[in-house]
Amino acid sequence: MSDRTPVLFVSHEGTLTGAPMMLLHFVRWLRDNSQVEPRMVLLRGGPLAERFAEVGPTLVLGEDVGWPGSTSAEDRLEEQGRHAEAQEARSRRVRPTLAEVADLPIAYVNSAASLRILHHLPRAQTAIAHVHELESALQWAMLPEDHSLLARRVDHFVAAADCVADNLVERHGVARTDVTRVYEFIDTGRALSSSPDGREAVRSQLGLAPDAAVIGGCGFADWRKGIDLFVQLARHVALLGRDDVHFVWLGGRAGGTEHEQLDFDIAQAGLGDRFHMVGLQDNPFDWYRAFDVFALTSREDPYPLVGLETSVLGVPMVCFDRSGGMTEFVTRHAEENGSAGVIVPYIDVEAMADAAIRLIDDPAERAAMGARASRTVVAEHEVEVVGPQLLRVIENVTGLRLR
Amino acid sequence: MTTPAPWTVVSHTADDSVPAVTVAHLMAWLDRDPRVDLHTVLWSRGHNSPQRYDFGRLANVAEAHDVFPAGLLRRVGLSRVGGVLAGRAVRRTLRSVPAEGVLYLSSAFAAPVLRYLPAGERTVVTHLHGIDREAVPPLSQERVDQIRAVTDVWLAVDEKTRAWAAKAWEIDPDAIVVVPEPVDLSGANRAGRSPDPTRLRLGIRGAAWFRTDHTARLVQRLQRVRPALSIELVWAEVIGSPDHLAPLLHDLERLGVSANLQLPRTSDEVVEAMDDIDVLVMTTPDDDSPWSVHEALSRGVPVVGFSTHGLASTIDGAFGMVVPYLDVVGLADAVIALHEQDDSAASPDVVRRREELRSRDVDVVGPRLLALVEDLR
Lengths: 403, 377
Description:
- The structure holds 2 protein chains of 2 kinds.
- By secondary structure, chain A is α/β, with parallel strands linked by helices.
- Chain A has helices at residues 18-33, 49-55, 61-64, 72-79, 83-102, 135-141, 147-152, 162-172, 188-192, 198-206, 227-239, 256-268, 284-290, 305-312, 326-331, 334-337, 349-361, 363-380, 383-398, and strands at residues 5-11, 36-42, 58-60, 106-110, 126-131, 156-159, 179-181, 213-218, 245-250, 275-279, 293-296, 317-320, 341-344.
- Chain A is globular.
- Chain B has helices at residues 18-32, 61-65, 70-75, 79-93, 130-133, 141-150, 159-168, 215-225, 242-254, 267-273, 291-299, 312-315, 328-340, 348-358, 362-376; strands at 5-11, 36-42, 58-60, 100-105, 121-128, 151-156, 176-178, 199-204, 230-235, 261-262, 279-282, 303-306, 320-323.
- Chain B is globular.
């Protein structure tokens, strides 16, 4: 009989996105380096579902019981304002499927979008919530009835950045002592083993001169990631007379009106062939290597993994103050080593343009800043470093010895 | 002394569309003219107050549509019975409309009133606007035939609308007179305003572009170029869903100025707020409802916007400034220039534009309309 302790890990989906990817790395590390026996529940499926299943038993609720989501009877109850009855009806539907994980002593809920599962798990289960979101994303990810779970049902929080911890405390009534900040991590080996020819390959693919400067952006092209600000940044750089600078944005984009608005803005910005929306890429690291500067134009981004992935490749970052955790990354060792990027006032596109151009025009400073950023990622944002920190949180909350 | 002629002026609704806004200006002017005995009709409910159409003898059909129990019956699926009851209520409401004189329809969308009016001998004036031309789907042939059968005087707000009406509705183009939508510019004397140079009350609206707009960036820029200036933001529009404001509030909060934003609770407050605005900023590239601009024009509030805006030619120079799209720095410079502008130093170009705009002044359009109808009757 195994002397491992089974722990339930919940992911809101199995897509190739930041939070599920990070959880996958973490449970793999736990399987190989601890006494934890990972058991997974994904609220919705995705390409990572099979990889989770390779680590341990994995249940995909969206496919098995149609939850999250409502039946028409539950919808009617909601429309009539009978929310508690609707919730109970959902529980009756989903609890039998969750029975096989309901007796596990610990539920580790990854991201606020997964919190809703706690409505249907026994209260005796110790609940740890790993929150990656700031306020806008929290509001988007949680249903109205989920908010009460934060203060009443969760035993301890892991916050992805200091700003995330502050938000939980200041806006959601969470006790400071119930939050541990543990920064995000990435697979630095995968990033560093990517082809060093990426810079030239991307320039060739885009038809750029080998010495063309590239300012990169990344993420789902929406308000939160500040694609509109990225376009304005490009326009301002062009106004500075820098026709040699190209702009490349990686990531998906919305359809419909938002799509048309973005195209309108790009056309009006008069950037011609200097603005490139390249969509999702199979190997983003080639593209990151092509960046001279990474412009994080997000209005709200707790601790974006792309900031770590570009940094580990030595690409310096410019970002907005008060936009999230990357300002913590940039300044963490600034006093002793110098900063790992440049912070400009919130949504100050003109200041960001000036900062980016200064870096482009100063290869030595750019390289030095990029090197500092890369060292910080390798030293502090690798699963071998962060995994033990997260395991310690589980041990401290449960009183179990799991190493 | 001549007996005042009955004029019944119909607004198709009480929303932010151009005809619904400008017809209120026309009503107010007609109400002041001793040659006119004014009656007004509001056909359907809009999100603005019906008060702007009430000059003492308002037939508010919008209320009659939902008279009890017609509205209730429609809601429970008994549309036919509800419709009959509502029709009776509409007819009762319209009994006060004179059987003679002039019937002015603010747009073709006001034409449904024809079916319910008491019989009479009226001169029907139909004023076609952009919303008639751009209606999607277009008005049905049945409706067009109905309007064509009763209209004695065709007006179009511009040449484009005139050409469209001639082609699409097969109206003799020589029978269509171009009369622009009237705006009351009596309060539009900027020289009579004396903005406080230490305080800027910025009218803003329309946070729809990317679920946000350039307001926050504009405030940031203004703070940089005029650090001592106290900036207040006045939301000059009826608020739809609070969700639309969330992204803007997010940005303003990050800049530490969210407390500077004043939001209206009712549509009446929006109208009143215009008197407290120093400069109105149109931060969207275009807009289907330039209500705020018309209200601003009528109160001498200068407007700043992007050159992509459909109203750019109206605004620029005469009643404000336009800057290239996305040029927030230019937007801030324009706001400062207009806020601190000595209006007596208007350039010849500005003067020329103002003269052009005068053709839309209700003091010009009103008498022209009266004379036109008198000639044709």
